[in-house]
Amino acid sequence: MFLLRLKLLLCLLPSIITAGPIQRSTSEVSRPRSFRANVYREPAVPRIRRRSDGAAYTDYTGGAWIVPSVIGGQTFNLFIDTGSADLWLYGTDIPADELDGQAQYNPSLSSTFVNLTGETFNIGYGDGSGASGYAALESVNIGGATVPNQAIGVANTIEGGAVGNSGYDGIIGLAFKYGNSIRPDQQPTFMENLEQYVDQPIFTTNFHSDNTGTIEFGYVDTALYTGNLQTFSCDNTTDYAGSWTVDSVSFSSMGNSLGSDTMAIVVDSGGTTTTISHDPLYNYYANVPGAVDTNGDGSNWGIPCDATLPDLTFLFNDSGTSATIPGASFFRNDGGNSCESLLTIEATSPRGSVGDPFFLSQFVIFNQADATVSFAPQSGSTQ
């Protein structure tokens, strides 16, 4: 339950944000104007797909981090995606044979629905999936805090890929407004609408390998990380508008440089894999006896099931900081005698990504006001 002090503070907030019961620890007595939501991870399911040149590769459908929500009085499970900026739901116009158990948003069941006349959304994702439909304003409750008049997309068309085959009912994009797909007028994200009412314009992630975790808005719980925070600035307005992207990243492993290549990297909670450029990738696997480039193009790596994968360090050259992903975070065994790695090549973009392997080892802070990402190793605490 909210502590008494927090309840009193929230009662003083303007009507645009309200709060309800959420679980909090006794260490949070002095925490003002913030809220935490429990999240869980939908297990990823391997799926063989083919590129346009016929090469086969493994795509891990699912693996999404899910936060429960109430939108327009209806309950939905939302995929948390820091790599996009739309909040959208499956609409009732999507045929039943295109669904896989998803709940559908029905505006006729909502007393807070407001149609944004003439506004539509159309968003695509890196795996080739996408959604499109009309836009509306709705009341959105996450973790016990409600933001009314939040712009959402209501999908009437789904385009293949992971979006149409996963156990979530929509996506909450937590990148910047510049990346929002609603047209003709882009709309603020949930966090951008919320930030003026929370104590700090931030949200944090604390995701664990047991498929549990939290997302928190407005506060940094120092009990959830160890050591010193490292911070880098994001390029969110020019080359990669609207995203949590850092430029000029290089790579090392086992104390040695993996080459002179540098590339931009997006901090993407929606990605199951981590992707980097050609030379660092192949230099990394040169240190893994028995590693096999399954397709010959770096898109899929088979590894012995008794292999020990080395750690991978990202060097953020512009800020002088670094982050190390434990090699064990890349290891994947779906049963049987074959194993794979979640570290693959970034073949379709000059920008790579840190996905699940990064989030499973780091406590991550996203600051909307100054477009920075801070991180430190998780402490293991679940306060």
Describe this structure in words.
By secondary structure, the chain is mainly β. The protein is built from four helices and 28 strands. The strands form five sheets. The chain has a six-stranded mixed beta barrel. Strands 15, 16, 17, 21, 22 and 26 form a six-stranded mixed beta sheet that branches. The longest helix is centred in the first third of the chain and has 8 residues, at 4-11. The chain starts with a helix and ends in a 6-residue tail after the last strand.
Give me a quick take on this structure:
The chain is mainly β and 383 residues long. It is 7% helix and 41% strand. The protein has a six-stranded mixed beta barrel. Strands 15, 16, 17, 21, 22 and 26 form a six-stranded mixed sheet that branches. It has a four-stranded antiparallel sheet with strand order 19-20-24-23, with no helix packed on it.
